[in-house]
Amino acid sequence: MKHGFMRWTWGAVLALASGCDGIELERLVKQQEPLSISRDEAPGGNCVLGGSEVLTGLDADEDGQLDDAEVRRTFYICDTDLPDVLLLNEKVLPGEKCPRGGQVSRAGQDTNGNGALDAAEVTREVYSCEEASPVVVRFTPTSDESCFPSATRVEAGLDLDRDGVLDDAERTAATLACLDSGQVKYRLQPQPESAHCGTGSTRVDVGLDTDGDGTLEDPEVSSTAFVCQPLRTFDGTYEVHSAADLAVLRGIGRVRGDVRISTTPLTEVELPALLMVEGEIFVQGNTALTRLEMTGLRLVERDVVIDGNGNLTTLLLGSRVSPGPALWIEGDLRVENNLWLPTLFGLRNAQPRRDVVIRNNDALETAGSFDNIRQHPGSIIVADNVSLQHLPFPNLNHVRGDVRITANTALPSLGLPALLGISGDLEVAGNSSLLDLSGMPELTTINGGLLVVENEHLRSTKGMETLSSLGTFLLARNPDLETVTGFPSLRTLDSLSIGENARLQALGPLHLWSVDSLYIHHNPLLTDLSGLGNLQSVRALGVNTNPSLTSLRDLGHLRSLEQLLVADNAKLTTLQLDGLEQVSAYFIIENNPRLPTCLATGLATRVYTGTEEPARTSGNDSTASCPPPPLPDGWNPLLPGGFE
Description:
Number of domains: 4
Keywords: Cell wall, Glycoprotein, Secreted, Signal
Number of strands: 42
CATH architecture of the largest domain: Alpha-Beta Horseshoe
Number of helices: 4
Radius of gyration: 36 Å
Protein name: DUF7151 domain-containing protein
Strand content: 25-35%
Region (Disordered): 611-644
CATH class of the largest domain: Alpha Beta
InterPro entries: CWI-Assembly_Regulator, DUF7151, EF_Hand_1_Ca_BS, Rcpt_L-dom_sf
Domain DUF7151: 38-78, 90-129, 188-228
């Protein structure tokens, strides 16, 4: 809404604007007539939404008009769309507050309803300063299927620390040149306000100097990026508690600290001019907030946290354009506990450098698409989103941290179609609509562990046919799982633990030949270990509390173990570990009530070489007899000495 200057009194202006000149002005007022001029101010740097420019001074020549030389102060009475909030901006000359000049903003509620911001109504006063940072550029050789034979990634941004080098935390724009990095030329061109940058920008033109004159000319430009120039800078952490605080923040482009919006009564937060935050953005516990938009945002040097805003339905950080300029987030991106947020499409240009956490957003159904996230340096955690139908990472191909997909009860598929490798763990847990592990058809490598736990209706582990390298595999507490299969390319594991799967009957076919640690436990219906028949090498073997298992004959190819545990298998009647030649450190076969004790003790006598721990064979069937050992090859009882 517009605020007419005619409703101001000279006393109110004097109180807000005179500062140290107040005594002098008050004296002069008695001799010379104070005058003011008010004229429209278009939306821009002085008033984001437009307003009125007000010039004030004394009629020194007593001609009844305010001449340029008589102007003592320039004010901007800015429009706001915040109910009853008034905003007054005043230019600040270079000095102690702002070495290069800037602006002081005062805002507050119009509590007396007179349409003017009285001194007693000011609840926020903020100095924001002009700061000029040069644009710097860097080239990085890369590969891209759209470029042959070479490609260079060109990144640009403001040199915030003025060291002449573009750091990761300074880049705000990027483009691709289908050239070798030694061939790339660039030029910088100042640009006015535009759709790319609402506050003005520096255009970075990139191309090949085909005529060799040392200058990049228009016909030689092959691609372009825009480095947005921020409005004034606020030094420190900016906290928003009220609509007046928000009104002032709208005119600031750079915050050298955090932006924190917590437990406010605000229903909408729109900050189109905010370009960079050199700390974190923290929006938490705003129970009335329905819309959060920061469309100019290009760089956040720490975390972005959107947490516990119970009525938030619109979230837009970064450009509206898709594909558009990246929103670089040097820390985590965390969107948690926003119960009515339906989509993350408004984050599609975000590129976090650390973890992406999407957790406990009950209405999140179509999560959007993080198209720019490909080589992700952190972890990805998608958890407790009960309506989620798909994962929002269609182009993700490598994750240096973990991927954790847990308790998304409506998720029908893992849905990471381009994923090739994970340096950490892949956890798939508590996703009750998953029937198998399909959705990652290109996955070849998990350096950490694959943890498949507590997926209520998981029937099969098929879907990872391309997986050829895996550290550890934990398969536990999946109550509908009937078989373990679907890993034809997997040959070795550091550990394999299969336990507490109530309906699991068979393992395999698997093609494993080496597992350092193998532990099979608490699978009540498991009768068949034939899928492990190719195993040649195991260091530690544990078979524990599988009440339907009768024999270990499918592990008969094993030759040497350090540790052997066979315990509490109610129907186990025979071991048949005929190929086993040595157990070197730890031997326990106990509490298998149908297994003849003599089979356990006989095996211990034959293969156990440990000296620190004695073999333990108690709790087996001591009443059962054992068949005589097989006769040696060539034995003939009719011949003297028994041998031919």
